[in-house]
């Protein structure tokens, strides 16, 4: 990182950025959070930039958050949905993107079901690429907004104990969170049924637990993930009811703790399964703050990547 620039011209994953990059993004996000909380919420920072949002998977929060961030920065925005595109007719990813780039697009925000799709594209096109989720691999902006939200609530994350609960096996959020939190010095644990914990995940330097109550007592922050039934081709748990019985975060379980912990959830929530409504809506929860911070973090990422992009491309 030099002169307030990121060390990379793409955001392909947390794995590929530095701790200094993360801190720079957080610093910019703090300024943009002030912007989005004032009466006039727009700045002209990207008024000469055209951004294409390419979503090959369904998305609500991430897509809206990116689009809002882009418009707050005064960028020109093009939205693409694979369900109504030539992809349905057999067009390749590279052909689709090259056709879009021929319309003079500067940046691409993409969600794709194939892990590594963003890295592949970065080797073949000139536009800057932001990963909005690739299969079960990474979701870097979600990890950044999660860590930023934690830092707002509990201060410096160095030495803090963060536990990620739920369907770790199918979650791109979990992997990006692990990379991001470790770069910020946090202690990370994953907790869930053995069938939903990836083999050898301990090789990433995280603790593994199958005991919900003990993990709640251990952690300062609980980041709760949903069961991703749409990614499961076999049954990993007997039923959602049984999962909730053993691994659901409820008010009764939190009331037994001798301390208060912070509750987070990247959404969408399955209320009554991995988290109860009275927990999601409680003072413990910073779920709505995560949504607000998502716009600020994405504004920061877009702004920093676009900064002097012509020099970076040279």
Question: Any idea what the radius of gyration is?
Answer: 19 Å
Q: Return the domain count.
A: 2
Low-confidence regions: none
Specify the CATH homologous superfamily of the largest domain: Aspartate/ornithine carbamoyltransferase
| Number of H/I helices | 12
Count of individual beta strands:
9
Give me the strand/helix succession.
HEHEHEHEHEHEEHEHHEHHH
Mean pLDDT: 91
The CATH top-level class label of the largest domain:
Alpha Beta
Largest sheet: 5 strands, parallel
* Largest beta sheet: strand ordering: 7-6-5-8-9
CATH 2nd-level architecture of the largest domain: 3-Layer(aba) Sandwich
Per the principal axes of the C-alpha atoms, what is the gross shape?
globular
Q: Which structural category fits the helices and strands?
A: alpha/beta
Provide the CATH topology of the largest domain.
Answer: Rossmann fold
Any overview of this molecule?
There is one protein chain. This protein is α/β, with parallel strands linked by helices and 314 residues long. The chain folds into two domains: 14-137 and 292-313, Rossmann fold (3-Layer(aba) Sandwich), CATH 3.40.50; 140-291, Aspartate/ornithine carbamoyltransferase (Rossmann fold), CATH 3.40.50. The protein is built from twelve helices and nine strands. It has helices at residues 19-36, 61-72, 93-101, 117-122, 140-154, 172-183, 212-218, 240-247, 251-255, 277-280, 287-306, 309-313; strands spanning 50-55, 76-81, 107-112, 128-134, 161-165, 187-191, 207-209, 221-224, 262-264. A five-stranded parallel sheet has the order 7-6-5-8-9, sandwiched between helices. It has a four-stranded parallel sheet with strand order 2-1-3-4. Helix 4 links the parallel strand 3 and strand 4 (128-134). The longest helix has 20 residues, at 287-306. It starts with 18 loop residues before the first helix and ends with a helix. The model has no long low-confidence stretch (mean pLDDT 91).
